[in-house]
Fold this protein.
Amino acid sequence: MKVTVFGIGYVGLVQGAILAEVGHDVCCVDVDSAKIEKLKNGVIPIYEPGLETLVKENFDSGRLHFTTSAEEGVGHGEIQFIAVGTPPDEDGSADLKYVLAVAETIATHMNTYKVVVDKSTVPVGTADKVSQKIAQVLKERNVAFPFDVISNPEFLKEGSAVNDCMRPDRIIIGTDSDRAEEAMRELYAPFNRNHEKMIVMDVRSAELTKYAANCMLATKISFMNEMANLAEKLGADIEHVRQGIGSDPRIGYHFIYPGIGYGGSCFPKDVQALIRTADSIKFDATVLKAVEARNYAQKNVLFEKVQKYFGDNLKGKVFAVWGLSFKPNTDDMREAPSRVLMESLWDAGASVQAYDPEAMEETQRIYGSRESLNLVGTKEAALRNADALLILTEWQAFKAPDFEFIKSQLKSPVIFDGRNLYEPHRMKSKGFTYVSIGRAG
Ligand code: UGA
């Protein structure tokens, strides 16, 4: 099938690449000409395992094209994906200006039936707005081509995006049009082989499904963070509690890892956006508000532990930081807990020696050159003469370090672990002061 994808960010690029991989003819459109040129030369703008090869191979095979020409894009696909960003507005609600601009573009150039697919995470009611926009532009053009606007939210996770898209748990299609449903069934047939993954529903339910999924996962995390803080105060160990409750299949082991708060471009934005949607219809989303408040507080928990140990004035102290990205296997720093922590350390007069396997360039881009931030090339170099080690992202490379070496490099053997990577009793026997989340030190 011929498919067009507008917006070559995370979602759009992965979506375009996997559709090309299974044989579709995909045209990717973006307004950023520098990005399009880079992609044509095999340079991928993001770090995502497996994506570079996938893009290169499909580009070389001629199934994946990149262009800045909206007209070419609209002319190409019967199916037109909208995968542009929906950044939070000042009040936290999702800003639809890019989505509606693509709708206008499609309507300006279309001259035959199109299935317009909202792939970006958009508030309930957006498909109606996109429909209205297309209808309005067609009317202005004095033409009448048939079209359907449907919702097909994306559930990929950064770091495993290619795999998530190639092997989706479910494919949500929100539409009441048989014609659009049939087109989507044909498009996704290669991903729907072993058992039925397609769930077809009305468009508003599909839009809400996306928010409900992310908010449910964020709720699990905030709940566990609350339990962790409580466990500490009660002299319990959250890791035992986690295993104890995860063994109940109704609860499950996924997304109940306590830590220093959820980050990334999705959970914080989507929880806020759903709160704003609820507010707009005068519905008080009490659970979501609590989830957000707990997460906000949780990002400060490790800093409070540092202060408890070293005192409020951290002037002259140097902290080794392992891990900057909001989670492993990505270079994404959006809403990363590391940012809140480093900024608090700087405000208190401390400086940071940091290492991350992928997010160093991104950190440099965000913070520029400053005396209080020393980005170093290895996790070992980060330790040199530091007052303590802070672990902020659970990269594999941090899970079994040489503890004797750590001890030899730090001024004193103190580790603040925001990801609970090690066993407290073992750390104690190795001679460390080990402070983690929800566990006795
Ligand atoms: C999330 C969802 O998991 C995807 O299904 C969804 O498609 C995506 O948002 C999106 O809306 O585009 P992602 O933001 O890539 O994916 O990251 P996750 O792996 O879900 O992690 C989010 C945050 O939760 C991270 O900061 C992570 O450290 C934290 N987390 C996760 C915990 O603190 N504890 C856990 O047990 C799990």
Notes: The first helix runs from residue 10 to 21. The chain has three domains: 2-201, 211-297, 299-435. The mean pLDDT is 96. Residues 3 and 26 are 5 Å apart (CA to CA).
